[in-house]
């Protein structure tokens, strides 16, 4: 949040304002086997790592190990390419070296026991053979059989060697055929744990009816691995269809409701299929357990207007409730933000009387095309309220009812406001037979009115609905 | 390969067996045919617990003495189904086949030495002097061990003093691991070449597709060419490695039945129920199959708020050199053959399948398959998002036929779709594929497009009909093909909506940066 505040307070600022923190750029752990790393980060928490290493490869067939890959590497996604390289096979081995594993693999082999006398500290070396390791290690010591450390006294077990195939870390190795020599090879794989999101800082100027919007990318690395001096490319999109045939139904996550009218404009940003690319201009180090913010959008004084919305779900009497404060603007090239917006959170600020920005609310936005009309619901309006009253309910016939609704609007602000009232629950067959002001039937289920409410005043709307049941 | 004629050192009090015991510790050659986990479908393998199985065929050469002998097989997969084991090649056949799961372990020793003499060693912590004492195990191992000493009856290690038991030898019928053995008879000392065939759990495989989509040659709308590459990904979750194995994989679903109750391994640590007790054992009891700790995932780190404002970099364009190819060049590709109604993939050279390892060998290399790029939605959830603009699914549709550049069996697995960008090919979608036979349609949903969107609005409703509007918007700078599936009976059989597989489907091309609107009416049942 520090960066956001400084930017708001400073007004026009897009250039780097904070010097790079030296500690955050240092590579913990020192040397790495990583080569020239390009990290492509998607919005579903997956990343594509392209690691170009200059390897000295012998001619013919050889096995190459690749240390310093992501600790969470999805091994089945590994691809190795390079000039003159043919792949024979790839292996990912995760038989890890642990004390229990060491003992299990020593069954049938000789070890050395060093017994330490608890009182004197004197050490006695005894050769022994491991017979079994099943819930306790059975040893043959001389002519007798005993269980290791059965009496709880200190005994060191010395092994001659570590069994082959046991490793400190899961290991990726590729068997390849090559012409030989120093070869630039690119290792490509997917890893979870590295994701990004966008955060929008929107400063609304009520007097000028404009907004300043800054878009920030927030990168988070939980892969357990540092990526040093990497080329970073962000992809705005979730490249996961989640399956095959017949899986193109409505996405389960409902719409954020922030797009009033989707746009059809294309921006000049670089693309990958259906997704937009946000390359970082400079190489950067993404340290493990680090969150990093990068700016990608900076728009000044785009037109915006404040509106009030109130939704009534049923034809029912309700106490006065606050209307929603809504900020409306466009992402169009002309008269808008002039860019498509990656999915993220938009936080809205306004200046107080002293000129300091204060937070007035936030809303999730989905990936929004350029040219869209948008509504950001920032919260409830303290001073603008709507009360709904069922005035009359008359039975017209055995299956028809008439309901007369009265909507009372109150405005405690010292300026006139317009409230967009939506009445839902009309089920298509409900007809409006009388209304005090012309409304707009936007769908079978919903009718909308725009009602002007004077400063420090009231307004009333009445409508009569004819419905089944 | 070595075959050990082990002179087994027999515990003195045991009746001397007339059998000689031969330990065959490793195979000379091994073949491994891996079958997929049933009902896994197109979900990925769990490498720590592969649920499929394998058929393993091994050849072993052993020396058999004259008379009756017991041949113990070591170095087999620990997930072996002993009932499936077949041993051939013995001069006079197999008389008896046993799987012994009585394990050499602390509790196994106590059980075997019940009512027998052991040596008890007690160490004085203050002086370090160890006193040796003879004792007879009176009861155990369940619920503790009771010993009879010269001083009377005592409970083992309920003293708080360091106590350990020494046993006089290894009981013959206990083994270090669950072991398959056969009893055979031979008239003379000879050398035999055996074949051991068995099935074992703890293996699995799947296909991993790398699809590189490129614009088609003819520049027609939505026509793409996909270079298809697939790995055969095989996982071995067990503790046994297989050196230089002939590796095969089977696609298809052979029927499998539930295995009846098996003899469970017995043995393990001593559990002493004492008046105060304080003991732990460091080595876990391994019942014979994968109870290992999986590779540790990276610890989830707390969100570092301090690092929040570390760097401010303005995003602009910069060209970076990246890989040109999405798929590798394979020099070894598995051969496919038919095995009855199943598909068999044979790795042409011997490979080593490591314990707890995942292995990949190329299985499909098929450049230039024809696929259509389609934006698709099925409008069947009315009311939930009435009028809201939603992203359409991105679908690649092809056909598994030769003239479309495919025409080969495609086993189920995961798909990574790459598309070209200014930075080389990058991941642009992920999907899964179920088993596709030759001739089948192939549909891969690889993601959703925020630029090609739809919104469904219920315009009106009467007792007989509902009228709907679907708005499609295209913010892409090129025309796109869209398909809207309406899985209901339409009113008036409109000409522009044809039925595809029985489902009314509207197909249209939306102009670059264009819009289109579809109206249709549903027939309502009168009530």
Q: Could you explain how this protein is built, in words?
A:
The complex is a heterodimer of chains A (469) and B (527). Chain A is built from three helices and 30 strands. In chain A, a hairpin with a 4-residue loop joins strand 13 (194-205) and strand 14 (210-221). Chain A has 469 residues and is mainly beta. By secondary structure, chain B is an all-beta fold. Chain B has a domain at 114-166: SH3 type barrels (Roll), CATH 2.30.30. Chain B has one helix and 29 strands. Chain B has a 19-stranded mixed beta sheet that branches. Classes of the chains: A mainly beta (469), B mainly beta (527).
Task: Set out the fold topology.
The complex is a heterodimer of chains A (469) and B (527).
Chain A: H1 2-10, H2 22-25, E1 36-41, E2 46-57, E3 60-66, E4 74-81, E5 86-93, H3 99-105, E6 110-116, E7 123-133, E8 137-141, E9 144-147, E10 155-158, E11 171-178, E12 181-192, E13 194-205, E14 210-221, E15 227-236, E16 259-261, E17 271-272, E18 275-279, E19 284-286, E20 290-312, E21 318-330, E22 344-351, E23 357-365, E24 373-395, E25 400-411, E26 417-423, E27 431-435, E28 440-443, E29 446-453, E30 458-468
Parallel strand pairs in A: 1-15, 13-22, 20-26
Antiparallel strand pairs in A: 1-2, 2-12, 3-11, 4-12, 5-11, 6-7, 6-10, 7-8, 8-9, 13-14, 14-20, 15-18, 15-19, 16-24, 17-18, 20-21, 21-24, 22-23, 24-25, 25-30, 26-29, 27-30, 28-29
Chain B: E1 4-5, E2 20-24, E3 29-35, E4 52-64, E5 67-73, E6 80-88, E7 94-100, H1 106-112, E8 117-123, E9 130-139, E10 146-149, E11 152-155, E12 163-167, E13 179-186, E14 190-215, E15 223-236, E16 242-251, E17 335-339, E18 342-346, E19 351-353, E20 357-378, E21 390-399, E22 413-421, E23 424-433, E24 441-461, E25 465-474, E26 480-485, E27 497-500, E28 503-510, E29 515-523
Parallel strand pairs in B: 2-5, 3-16, 14-22, 20-26
Antiparallel strand pairs in B: 1-2, 3-4, 4-14, 5-13, 6-14, 7-13, 8-9, 8-12, 9-10, 10-11, 14-15, 15-20, 16-18, 16-19, 17-18, 20-21, 21-24, 22-23, 24-25, 25-29, 26-28, 27-28
């Amino acid at each position: 949040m520090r960066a956001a505040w400084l930017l708001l307070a400073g007004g026009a600022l897009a250039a780097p304002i904070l010097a790079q923190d030296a500690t955050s750029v240092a590579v913990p752990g020192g040397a790495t086997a990583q080569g020239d790393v390009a990290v492509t980060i998607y919005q579903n928490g997956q990343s594509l790592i392209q690691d170009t290493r200059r390897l000295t490869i012998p001619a013919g067939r050889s096995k190459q190990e690749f240390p310093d890959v992501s600790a969470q590497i999805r091994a089945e996604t590994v691809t190795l390419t390079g000039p003159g390289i043919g792949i024979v096979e790839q292996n990912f081995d995760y038989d890890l070296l642990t004390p229990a594993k060491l003992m299990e693999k020593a069954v049938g082999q000789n070890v050395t026991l060093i017994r330490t006398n608890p009182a004197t500290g004197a050490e006695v070396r005894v050769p022994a053979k491991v017979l079994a390791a099943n819930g306790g290690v059975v040893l043959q010591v001389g002519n007798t059989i005993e269980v290791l450390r059965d009496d709880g006294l200190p005994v060191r077990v010395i092994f001659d060697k570590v069994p082959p195939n046991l490793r400190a870390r899961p290991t990726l190795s590729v068997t390849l055929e090559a012409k030989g020599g120093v070869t630039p090879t690119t290792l490509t794989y997917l890893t979870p744990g590295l994701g990004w999101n966008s955060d929008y800082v929107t400063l609304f100027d009520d007097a000028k009816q404009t907004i300043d919007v800054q878009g920030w990318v927030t990168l988070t690395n939980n892969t357990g691995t540092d990526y040093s001096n990497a080329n970073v490319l962000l992809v705005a999109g979730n490249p996961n269809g989640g399956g095959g045939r017949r899986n193109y139904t409505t996405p389960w996550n409902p719409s954020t409701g922030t797009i009033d009218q989707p746009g059809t404009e294309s921006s000049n940003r670089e693309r990958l299929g259906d997704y937009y690319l946000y390359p970082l201009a400079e190489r950067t180090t993404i340290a493990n357990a680090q969150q990093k913010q990068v700016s990608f959008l900076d728009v000044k004084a785009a037109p915006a207007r404040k509106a009030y919305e109130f939704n009534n779900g049923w034809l029912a009497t309700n106490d006065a409730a606050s209307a929603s404060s809504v900020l409306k603007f466009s992402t169009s090239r002309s008269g808008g933000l002039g860019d498509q917006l990656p999915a993220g959170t938009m936080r809205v600020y306004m200046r107080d009387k002293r000129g300091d920005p204060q937070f007035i609310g936030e809303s999730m936005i989905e990936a929004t095309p350029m040219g869209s009309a948008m509504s950001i619901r920032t919260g409830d309006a303290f001073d603008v309220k709507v009360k709904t009253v069922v005035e009359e309910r008359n039975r017209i016939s055995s299956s028809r009812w008439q309901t007369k609704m009265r909507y009372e609007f109150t405005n405690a602000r010292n300026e006139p406001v317009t409230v967009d009232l939506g009445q839902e629950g009309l089920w298509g067959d409900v007809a409006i037979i009388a209304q005090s002001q012309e409304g707009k039937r936007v769908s079978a289920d919903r009718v909308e009115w725009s009602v002007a409410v004077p400063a420090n005043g009231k307004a009333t709307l009445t409508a009569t609905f004819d419905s089944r049941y | 390969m070595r075959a050990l004629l082990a002179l087994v050192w027999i515990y003195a009090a045991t009746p001397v067996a007339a059998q000689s015991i031969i330990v065959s510790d490793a195979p000379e050659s091994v073949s491994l045919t891996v079958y997929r986990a049933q009902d896994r479908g197109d979900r990925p393998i769990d490498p720590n617990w592969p649920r499929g199985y394998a058929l393993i065929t091994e050849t072993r050469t052993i020396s058999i003495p004259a008379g009756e002998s017991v041949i113990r097989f070591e170095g087999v997969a620990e997930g072996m189904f002993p009932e499936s084991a077949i041993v051939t090649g013995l001069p006079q056949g197999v008389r008896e086949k046993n799987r012994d799961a009585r394990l050499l372990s602390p509790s196994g020793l106590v059980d075997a030495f019940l009512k027998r003499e052991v040596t008890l060693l007690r160490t004085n912590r203050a002086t370090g002097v160890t006193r040796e004492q003879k004792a007879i195990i009176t009861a155990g191992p369940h619920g503790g061990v009771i010993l009879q000493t010269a001083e009377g009856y005592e409970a083992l290690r309920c003293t708080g003093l360091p106590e350990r038991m020494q046993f006089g030898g290894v009981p013959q019928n206990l083994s270090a691991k669950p072991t398959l053995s056969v009893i055979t008879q031979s008239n003379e000392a000879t050398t035999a070449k055996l074949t051991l065939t068995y099935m074992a759990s703890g293996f699995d495989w799947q296909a991993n597709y790398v699809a590189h989509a490129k614009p088609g040659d003819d520049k027609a709308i939505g026509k793409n060419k996909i270079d298809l590459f697939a790995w055969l990904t095989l996982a071995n979750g067990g503790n046994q490695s297989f050196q230089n194995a002939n590796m095969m994989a089977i696609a298809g679903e052979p029927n499998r039945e539930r295995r009846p109750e098996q003899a469970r391994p017995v043995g393990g640590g001593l559990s002493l129920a004492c008046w105060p007790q304080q003991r732990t054992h460091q080595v876990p009891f391994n019942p014979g199959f994968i109870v290992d700790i999986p590779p540790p995932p990276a610890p989830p780190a707390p969100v570092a708020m301090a690092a929040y404002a570390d760097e401010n970099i303005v995003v602009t364009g910069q060209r970076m050199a990246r890989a040109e190819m999405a798929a590798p060049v394979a020099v070894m590709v598995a051969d496919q053959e038919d095995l009855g109604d199943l598909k068999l993939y044979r790795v042409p050279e011997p490979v080593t399948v490591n314990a707890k390892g995942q292995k990949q060998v190329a299985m499909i290399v098929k450049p230039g398959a024809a696929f259509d790029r389609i934006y698709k939605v099925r409008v069947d959830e009315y009311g939930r998002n009435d009028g809201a603009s939603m992203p359409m699914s991105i679908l690649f549709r092809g056909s598994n036929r030769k003239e479309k550049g495919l025409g080969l069996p495609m086993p189920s697995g995961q798909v990574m779709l790459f598309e070209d960008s200014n930075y080389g090919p990058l991941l642009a979608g992920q999907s899964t594929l179920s088993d596709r036979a030759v001739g089948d349609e192939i549909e891969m949903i690889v993601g959703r497009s925020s630029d090609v969107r739809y919104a469904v609005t219920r315009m009106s409703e009467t007792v007989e009909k509902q009228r709907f509007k679907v708005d499609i918007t295209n913010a892409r700078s090129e025309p796109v093909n869209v398909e809207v599936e309406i899985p209901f009976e339409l009113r008036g059989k409109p000409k522009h909506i044809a039925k595809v597989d029985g489902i009314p489907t509207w197909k249209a091309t939306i102009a670059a940066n264009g819009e289109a609107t579809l109206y249709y009416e549903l027939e309502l049942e009168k009530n």
